[in-house]
Amino acid sequence: MEITAQQIAAYINGTVEGDTNTVINNFAKIEEGVPGAISFLANPQYEHYIYETKSSVVLVNEDFQPTQPVAATLIRVRNAYEAVSKLLQLYDSMKPKRTGISSLAFIAETAKIGKDVYIAPFVAIGDNAEVGDGAELHPHATIGARAKVGANTIMYSNSVVYHDCVVGNRCILHAGCVIGADGFGFAPTAEGYEKIPQIGIVTIEDDVEIGANTCIDRSTMGSTVVHKGVKLDNLVQIAHNVEVGANTVMSAQAGVAGSAKVGEWCMLGGQVGVAGHITLGDRVYAGAQSGLSGGRKLKNGNCTVMGYPAIEHQNFARSAAAYKNLPNLVKQVNELQNEIDELKRICKNK
Length: 350
What we know:
Elements: E1 3-4, H1 5-12, E2 15-17, E3 23-24, E4 26-27, E5 37-41, H2 47-50, E6 57-61, E7 73-77, H3 80-93, E8 100-101, E9 106-107, E10 112-113, E11 118-119, E12 124-125, E13 130-131, E14 136-137, E15 142-143, E16 148-149, E17 154-155, E18 160-161, E19 166-167, E20 172-173, E21 178-181, E22 186-189, E23 192-195, E24 201-204, E25 209-210, E26 215-217, E27 223-226, E28 231-232, E29 237-238, E30 243-244, E31 249-250, E32 255-256, E33 261-262, E34 267-268, E35 273-274, E36 284-286, E37 291-292, H4 296-300, E38 303-306, E39 311-312, H5 313-323, H6 326-349
Parallel strand pairs: 4-5, 5-6, 6-7, 8-11, 9-12, 10-13, 11-14, 12-15, 13-16, 14-17, 15-18, 16-19, 17-20, 18-21, 19-24, 20-25, 21-26, 24-27, 25-28, 26-29, 27-30, 28-31, 29-32, 30-33, 31-34, 32-35, 34-36, 35-37, 36-38
Antiparallel strand pairs: 1-3, 2-7, 22-23, 38-39
């Protein structure tokens, strides 16, 4: 792909500063720039690289003010990070799409397969399963009986959609993710734990991306639901009967316990834990390793929390600052207590 700075600017609604005819044919991180590449600067911590990068074009925010000369042609945009994302999507869409069904794939006779699909060797598709038009199934992807996978959805190697589960259109299931394994339901008895059958399903709506080795459990009854536009990182656990609102994102190792409801546009950092049966409102932002166990603030949404149990992030910051001073505070308290004890002894002897 070769494209000029002016063509790029027109596509992303930017303004060129420098040579409008500069041609780029590659992408590069700003610190690893090479001639012919386009880079971007969104984080001020990386500003020093723009003065030494070899990239031919750099995307910058509209308010960027260089403090030194810049050799690269600049394209100013409202949001450099969003702009480079749009360009990467364009680049990715230009790649030739694979189609065809391998003779080494196993496809049940009753399965329904759409047009222009790619089904790689060793894919397994069960009885009465459905695969939408343009779907891509990579080696060892598995679709269980009666499961449905929508149009233009990609299943990477070893991803699994269990029986009866539903995956929408334009979803991406990364390697090793599991949709529809049994929820963790066991009833304690005198002899041990008796398994509670999980007879529900998982429903994944459109435009959802699920990271490698992430698991979404089927419900005991009804459906575990992940609404449209949700993005889940690697190693995320969504338990049975959970509902995740539209456009929510979760970082690696986050976990949501059974029957919890997570609102729309929430952001959960790495290793965040959500307790079972609670409700999070829309736009709850939880910092890494937070423990969310309920409360009116979380239910109402529009809040940023940290810590365990999770509290308002500014209170958490103040608490963390105090925590590191606890050894000195304990020493001072002990010294004061010793002084009080000595004063009591003196008063008693009088």
